[in-house]
Structures are given as C-alpha cells and as structure tokens.
Design brief:
This protein has 294 residues and is of the alpha/beta class. The chain has 13 helices and nine strands. Helix 7 links the parallel strand 8 and strand 9. The structure holds nicotinamide-adenine-dinucleotide.
C-alpha cells in the first residue's frame, strides 16, 4: 500500500483516484473545485486542504490536469518543495511534450523521481480501471510507478525516456484522426456510388482498408453495433479532445522538424468541426461534416 496524493479530480481524475483507493492505497485528493473534492470523498479519498498538503508524507503524487501550464504551475508552485526526496511524481494529463520534459527536469532538480503517463480509454476506461497508460521516464521511476499505475489501467507500457509517453499518445491519436477521416471519406464516396455500408464494411474489415476506425469505431450506423454512430454520435471520444491532441501533435511536429501534412490537414478539419459546435460530439461524427451535413 502506498500513500498517494492526487491533484485534479475531474472527469478522469475522480474515478482514477477512486480506483486507487479500491486497489488498497491511501489517497489524499485536491482540486480547485470543492464539489469535485466532495465527490472524491464519497469514493473514500481523503480531503486535502491544498496542493502542498497532498505532497507532504506522500510516496507518490499524481496530477490529472487540463494542460501543460497547469502541470508546471502545480508542480513548481509548492508541490515538489513539499514532498520528501525520492517521492515519485506522475503526470497522467495529456500535455505538450516540451512541458512534460520540463516537468521531469524540475522533479530531478528537486530530488524526485518522475513519469509522464498519459492515458487512453476515456471516462469509461477510467471508471473500469481499464485504461492504457503510455509512460515516459527512467527505468528506476517506471519500476516504482508501474505497480501504482496498474491500479488505474489494464496496460502500462514503458515507452522510453522522459516525454516518451506524451510522444506516443500524440503520435497514436494523430494516426487515429487521419484514419478516421479517411474512413469517413470512403463511406461518403460509397454512399454517392450507391454502395451499401455493409458491403464496404465487409470488404474493408477483412482487406487492406482495415483499421480500428473501420472495425471497432465504424462511423456509419449498422456494421459495428457498439460504435457511437449507432448512438447519435454521443462520445465515446469527444471531438474537442481529438482537436486538443492534434494541436499538441502539430506543436511537437513543428519543434521536432517533422513533416506531418496529413496530421496538419486532420487538425484543420477537427478545428472546423469543433468551431461548428460539435466539440461535444464523438470524433467519428466528422463524417457528417464530410457529407456537407454538419
Ligand atoms: P477535467 O477538466 O474534467 O478535469 C481537470 C480537473 O483539474 C478539474 O476538476 C479542475 O478543477 C482541476 N484543476 C485545474 N487546475 C487545477 C489546479 N491548479 N489545482 C487543482 N486542480 C486543478 O478534465 P478531464 O477530462 O478529467 O481530463 C484531464 C486530462 O486527461 C486532460 O489533460 C485530458 O486531455 C486528459 N484525457 C481526458 C480524457 C477524457 O475522455 N476526458 C481521455 C484521455 C485523456
């Protein structure tokens, strides 16, 4: 059992903190929004009175915050200073690679171990403790953090050095966005050609057009009954979150000097889709914009 401080008890952080309690850990939680802290208390998380309070005497501190700025502000704003040397700091937020690396540097200077460990699986995966975690950091930090992270997810992958978890997350999601848009274009073309959804699905799902976007998350109703297309495009994975991850991938591509023309196009298309008021729709709903119907 570890003593864990948890900061950021929102849509994802709340169930993750609750699952760490279920896994047998003592969890102290803090959020700027008091009603979120109260929801966590109902899941047997102990209430902390500030970020520094969370870090004092903790074996591990986890943050689950909106963006890189919040993580750097919280880690640098008294959290690292309040912890005992050797404490492991794990950031599970999805943030830009540069901020993730900066957070690791800050932790190392303060004598702490650290991991970037963004997650995939959404709120459903967070509730079910079935998230996939993509982890960056030293082998020593991973060995210490892995048993704790296995309390919130079913797969914990060590991707490499500091920042590698965030890199893996944005590369994966850029690939997903591009294949989803390609899948939507193909189904739209099939409709115009008078080809049925079932016929295209039967061919593509077993041939070279095959992908997760086709077989698990098919953007038209029918072929995959569990896909959001059968549920009025309720998320699932909201378009606003895909837009955020594509923005991070483009920022990383610029700073690394990588050419990502399809990623840039996908980013523009999701910007447009979200600006038309569809940020809360599932990201596969972009098929309606491609049909000219969003
Ligand atoms: P959220 O907005 O619901 O939660 C963030 C929480 O952080 C809020 O409760 C907010 O009050 C709190 N917070 C902000 N600044 C704070 C501070 N200085 N001190 C303490 N608390 C502070 O967001 P979420 O959906 O839980 O997402 C969290 C992170 O996980 C994001 O980086 C997001 O991109 C990533 N993520 C989300 C999903 C998803 O499906 N929601 C999936 C994968 C990854």
């Amino acid at each position: 059992m570890a003593r864990i401080g948890f900061i950021g008890l929102g849509n994802m952080g709340l169930p993750m903190a609750g699952n760490l309690v279920k896994a047998g850990h003592q969890v102290l939680g803090f959020d700027l929004v008091n009603s979120n802290v109260e929801k966590a208390v109902a899941r047997k998380v102990e209430k902390a009175h500030g970020a520094a309070d969370v870090a004092k005497d903790a074996d591990c501190v986890i943050t689950m915050l909106p963006a890189g700025k919040h993580v750097l502000d919280v880690w640098g704003g008294g959290l690292l200073a309040a912890a005992k040397p050797g404490t492991i700091f794990i950031d599970c937020s999805t943030i830009d690679v540069a901020s993730a690396r900066k957070a690791h540097d800050m932790a190392a200077k303060a004598g702490m171990l650290s991991l970037d460990a963004p997650v995939s699986g959404g709120v459903g995966g967070a509730e079910a403790a079935s998230l996939t975690l993509m982890v960056g950091g030293t082998k020593e930090a991973f060995a210490k953090g892995q048993p704790i992270l296995s309390g919130v997810g079913k797969k914990v992958v060590h991707c490499g050095d500091p920042g590698a978890g965030q890199s893996a997350k944005i590369c994966n999601n850029m690939m997903l966005a591009i294949t989803m848009i390609g899948t939507c274009e193909a189904f739209n073309l099939a409709e115009k050609l008078g080809l049925s959804h079932e016929a295209l699905f039967d061919v593509a799902s077993t041939s070279s057009g095959q992908s997760w976007a086709v077989t698990t998350y098919c953007p038209v109703p029918g072929p995959v009954p569990t896909s959001p297309a059968n549920n009025h495009y309720k998320p699932g994975f909201a378009a606003a979150l895909m837009q955020k991850d594509l923005g991070l991938s483009q920022e990383a591509a610029r700073s690394a000097g990588a050419s990502t023309p399809m990623g840039a196009a996908a980013s523009q298309l999701y910007n447009l889709f979200v600006s038309q008021g569809h940020g809360g729709d599932d990201f596969s709903g972009i098929i309606n914009m491609i049909r000219g119907k969003a």
